């Protein structure tokens, strides 16, 4: 009785949530999905009924990753608060039927609307936009069958007032661009395939009736991202043709992201010459063929640049400093810089230099001093080897960038020079990567705590010091300079990979353990770290990095055996906030023990496993899906037979689709000839964010779209 009395007294003296001020409660409620606020929380009591309808909570409605929302919830939501919504983001809601869009017409006061990844026909778009007279920002997809002639005059009147447009093209078309006569920001994503499903070659010519000319006179931002394929290049040239005739005077951001070779033409050369004469830019990204060997950068003028991308260009460090950073002058406005694949960017010249030669630390130092406010820096896909000069290691220089939030580095750039030089050639990591030494099962072969790990490699290493200095880093990518994913985009799976850089041979468990110092780390990518022997550093990360949401591991250790499996399973038991997990490793065994450990990740939403000759246990996968209720994406590309894969995929869909409307399951043999046909049906949100491997640091300017 005394114990019960004490507990009741504590409860009576405790703080009641409803006693908090309205301001504090509103802040708490801002973390709750809008559908839960309006459809559930609002019905609990009178006070919350009032607060849940506060303008600060209903002004902007984000449904883009609310995987539990369905058509009925959207209908009820629009009915209850439609008139109060000014910004609505439904990007990537691929599971909602197209009829769901009809309910958006209740949002009469909408100013911003994002429907990227949603199923919208020309007629539905016309009907919806005809009622949204206040709309100023729009994002849509243009799919095969889109017909601009079906847009009503009321719809075109709305589009004429739109100043921001994001358009993803799956078919050659201008989309709604010609109707948007007041455009200031235009974002174009070209995802057109070269072949139809029937195998016919597609043409980049626009459909009949789409000869209207886009209106760019007020354009301030032009951005185009191209998927691989010549059709995408043909179509983007049609969009650029108008720009080449007359360059907008207010243009301050011009960005084109194009993989592979995208040749410069007379029209594009005229456009760049016009830009050099008439505009001052704040953001720039161009295809490598447009920059390589030209004096373009010498003539372009910049105002207060915040984003540069010279990805895959042969730009030398000398040109970078002289033509972009103005000889090392103050460039504090620059917050994002992408030098991925720019192999000579830290060398004075590129004419007689080999890609593996040491960098010139003075160039990097000039970059760090001039761009001291950098928040996003990508130096991946290149050999950035530091010399033996004391104090001039790449990691030591980067440690001065105290504002960094995201960083991408090649594996060979983080090794201590002395360690890589003194390492004898007989070390285990230099064994051919097709074979691996057997590890006794059931015995933990890695240190159990951070202190033991530190004893193996002293904490004075340059990478350890770098991680200690970047305390607020949220995204980190350490990727082998010769790494290429086995997962294809528009081509068959890659069967062979290049060996890692010689300088990278010493990078292993102790470097991974150093990452555990990043308390606020949210996204981590590790690829082609050859000296991973046990994966012990992963356990440290799981224990210390409690905010980790995205984890991508690829080709760690020797390729003939998954040597880090035991450590990975221990790590996963601590990752309570993990939402996205991508694993790419040959011979990966997705068995009962692995999925039992993964079940501890209660927040997990998306899983992707890519494994040549990998195996899986169907019963274990089913048990995992049943226990992890938040999982809505399961992609597994393994070495199993087509029959096994299809049966498992059908079982998952049949068992869980009704409860999880957004469920997307793809289980398929990695080396099957029809893999590319399967990939094209994956929702773009998952394909772009997790299924395909790529470096994402500084991939786009920050805050490019809301």
UniProtKB/TrEMBL annotation:
Residues 14-61 form the F-box domain. The lineage of its organism: Eukaryota, Metazoa, Chordata, Craniata, Vertebrata. InterPro entries: F-box-like_dom_sf (IPR036047), F-box_dom (IPR001810), FBXL18_F-box (IPR047948), FBXL18_LRR (IPR045627), LRR_dom_sf (IPR032675). Pfam families: F-box-like (PF12937), LRR_FBXL18 (PF19729). This is FXL18 protein. It comes from the Eukaryota. It comes from Certhia brachydactyla (short-toed tree-creeper). GO terms for biological process: SCF-dependent proteasomal ubiquitin-dependent protein catabolic process. GO terms for cellular component: SCF ubiquitin ligase complex.
């Amino acid at each position: 009785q005394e114990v019960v009395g004490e507990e009741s007294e504590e409860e009576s003296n405790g703080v009641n949530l409803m006693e908090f001020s309205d301001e504090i409660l509103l802040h708490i409620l801002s973390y709750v999905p809008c559908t839960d606020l309006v459809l559930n929380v609002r019905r609990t009591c009178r006070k919350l009924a009032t607060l849940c309808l506060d303008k600060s909570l209903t002004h902007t409605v984000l449904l883009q990753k609310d995987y539990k929302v369905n058509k009925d919830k959207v209908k009820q939501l629009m009915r209850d608060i439609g008139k109060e919504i000014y910004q609505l983001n439904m990007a990537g809601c691929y599971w909602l039927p197209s009829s769901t869009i009809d309910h958006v017409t209740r949002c009469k006061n909408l100013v911003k609307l994002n429907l990227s990844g949603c199923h919208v026909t020309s007629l539905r778009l016309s009907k919806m936009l005809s009622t949204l007279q206040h709309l100023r920002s729009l994002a849509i997809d243009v799919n095969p069958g889109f017909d601009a002639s079906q847009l009503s005059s009321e719809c075109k009147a709305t589009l004429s007032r739109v100043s921001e447009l994001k358009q993803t093209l799956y078919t050659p078309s201008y989309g709604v661009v010609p109707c948007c006569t007041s455009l200031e920001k235009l974002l174009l994503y070209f995802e057109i395939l070269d072949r139809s499903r029937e195998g016919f070659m597609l043409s980049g010519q626009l459909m009949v009736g789409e000869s209207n000319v886009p209106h760019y006179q007020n354009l301030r931002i032009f951005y185009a991202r191209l998927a691989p394929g010549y059709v995408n290049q043909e179509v983007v040239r049609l969009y650029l043709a108008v720009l080449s005739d007359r360059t907008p005077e207010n243009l301050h951001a011009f960005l084109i992201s194009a993989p592979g070779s995208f040749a410069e033409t007379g029209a594009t050369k005229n456009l760049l010459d016009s830009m050099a004469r008439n505009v001052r830019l704040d953001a720039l990204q161009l295809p490598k063929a447009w920059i390589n060997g030209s004096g373009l950068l010498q003539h372009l003028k910049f105002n207060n640049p915040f984003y540069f991308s010279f990805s895959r260009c042969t730009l030398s460090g000398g040109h970078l400093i002289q033509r972009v950073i103005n000889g090392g002058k103050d460039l504090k406005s620059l917050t994002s810089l992408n030098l991925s694949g720019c192999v000579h960017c830290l060398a004075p010249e590129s004419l007689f230099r080999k890609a593996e030669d040491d960098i010139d630390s003075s160039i990097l130092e000039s970059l760090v001093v001039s761009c001291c406010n950098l928040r996003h820096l990508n130096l991946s896909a290149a050999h950035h080897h530091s010399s033996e000069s004391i104090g001039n290691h790449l990691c030591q220089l980067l440690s001065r960038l105290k504002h960094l939030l995201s960083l991408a580095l090649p594996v060979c750039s983080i090794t201590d020079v002395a360690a890589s030089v003194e390492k004898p050639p007989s070390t285990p990591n230099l064994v051919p990567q097709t074979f691996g030494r057997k590890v006794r099962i059931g015995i933990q072969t890695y240190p159990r705590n951070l202190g033991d790990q530190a004893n193996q490699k002293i904490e004075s290493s340059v990478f350890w010091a770098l991680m200690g200095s970047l305390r607020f880093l949220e995204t980190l990518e350490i990727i082998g300079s010769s790494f290429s994913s086995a997962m294809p985009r528009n081509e068959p799976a890659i069967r062979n990979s290049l060996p890692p850089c010689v300088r990278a041979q010493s990078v292993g468990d102790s470097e991974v353990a150093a990452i555990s110092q990043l308390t606020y780390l949210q996204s981590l990518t590790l690829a082609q770290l050859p000296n991973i022997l046990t994966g012990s550093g992963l356990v440290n990360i799981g224990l210390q990095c409690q905010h980790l949401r995205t984890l991508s591991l690829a080709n760690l250790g020797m390729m003939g055996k998954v040597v880090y499996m035991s450590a990975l399973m221990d790590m996963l038991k601590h990752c309570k906030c993990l939402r996205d997990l991508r694993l790419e490793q040959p011979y990966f065994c997705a068995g009962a023990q692995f999925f039992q450990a993964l079940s501890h990740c209660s927040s997990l939403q998306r899983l992707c496993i890519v494994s040549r000759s990998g195996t899986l246990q169907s019963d274990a996968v089913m048990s995992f899906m049943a226990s992890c209720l938040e999982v809505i994406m399961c992609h597994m590309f393994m070495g199993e037979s087509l029959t096994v894969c299809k049966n498992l995929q059908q079982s998952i869909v049949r068992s869980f689709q009704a409860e999880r409307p957004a469920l997307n399951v793809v289980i398929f043999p990695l080396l099957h000839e029809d893999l590319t046909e399967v990939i094209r049906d994956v929702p773009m949100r998952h394909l772009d964010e997790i299924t395909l491997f790529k470096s994402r640091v500084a991939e786009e300017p920050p805050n490019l779209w809301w």
